[in-house]
Design goal:
Elements lengths: L2 H12 L11 E5 L10 H10 L4 E4 L4 H7 L5 E6 L4 H6 L1 H11 L12 E7 L13 H4 L10 E4 L11 H17 L2 E2 L2 E2 L5 E4 L54 E4 L8 H9 L20 H13 L13 E4 L24 H17 L6
Parallel strand pairs: 1-2, 1-8, 2-3, 3-4, 5-8
Antiparallel strand pairs: 6-7, 9-10
Helix pairs in contact: 1-5, 8-9
Amino acid sequence: MPPNLSLILFFFFLNLSALTFSTVSAVGFNWGTAASHPLSPFKVVQLLNSNNITKVKLLDPNPLVLQALSGSTVQLTIGIPNPMLKLLNSSRKAAESWVHDNVTRYLSGGTGGVRIEYIAVGDEPFLQSYGDEYYPYVMGAVANIQAAITKVGWPTDGAGNANSSTAETFMKGLLDYLHSRSGSPLRPRRPPLETYILSLLDEDQRNISTGPFERHWGVFTFDGQAKYHLNFGQGTKNLVNAQNVEYLSPKWCVLNNNKDLSNASASALEACSVADCTALAPGASCSNIGWPGNISYAFNSYYQQNDQRPESCDFQGLALITTIDPSNNNCRFPVQIRTSNSQSLDASFLLKAISLSAVFWLSQIVYFQ
């Protein structure tokens, strides 16, 4: 095993004397935070408790999330981000520092700490797209461990067959299979120790290089509203929504039909290079609203992403602000939630977002014709 990853795992389990292993397949959620307007971590913890969700996995240690989990009964798996694997493998000091900053400082012998149970070494480090980049830092750490499924789910938007109905069917089948404890043909009667659903909430800043559906894995919407019915032991047939969510004003940015619209498509492409327009992808929930509805969707997405700032609904005079909800059928024009740090994206993210999104959106220019 790489020496310093070994140190992390040894120190980790040394501090978890109460850790026990079970043959029962436990179900949890991946809790991602790649959102422009993340739901308050404290409201998310309330959401978990209301639905009897007792296990979550973080791809990386987010201090605000860890603070919100402090004193709760939620059991946590915490991940080491892939870019950190090389450093933690090569530096004992860095490994010790990571354990202190992200694990031991949040543990407590009483009831006030975070119930950190496992460390996930990397996030899908063996993907073909990575080649052997992370292989030397991970292989030694995966010897003689029990099997777990760290990501499984079905997206609800951003592609054909990515919808709530299909996702509900898939998820119910998955839960029935896990509860049966039947295992697999190669591992009969040996179910995975842990299974983590992808994911808890939608995230409008996830990388979409593999497809627009990447931002729609959530069983709950970005604002904590259940998309379909599942029973995680919450005692009711319906999942419980997040409570007392604070939204921005009920306002939307739409195309001004009284203007010269010859440059409207170009403005929409510019908006979508930064904002989330994945609902406009072929087969997605807003793919059939046509022109000029798709232009309005792009404008509104940008407007909400920028906290409804008046200057973000201009587009050289092509847009206007309305209090009439333009949503129709299954196509929701969202109003963003209010956050304590609501602000427009910084320059570094804008450049990154444009570089990740430009090829995709420019190739789909038909959306705005």
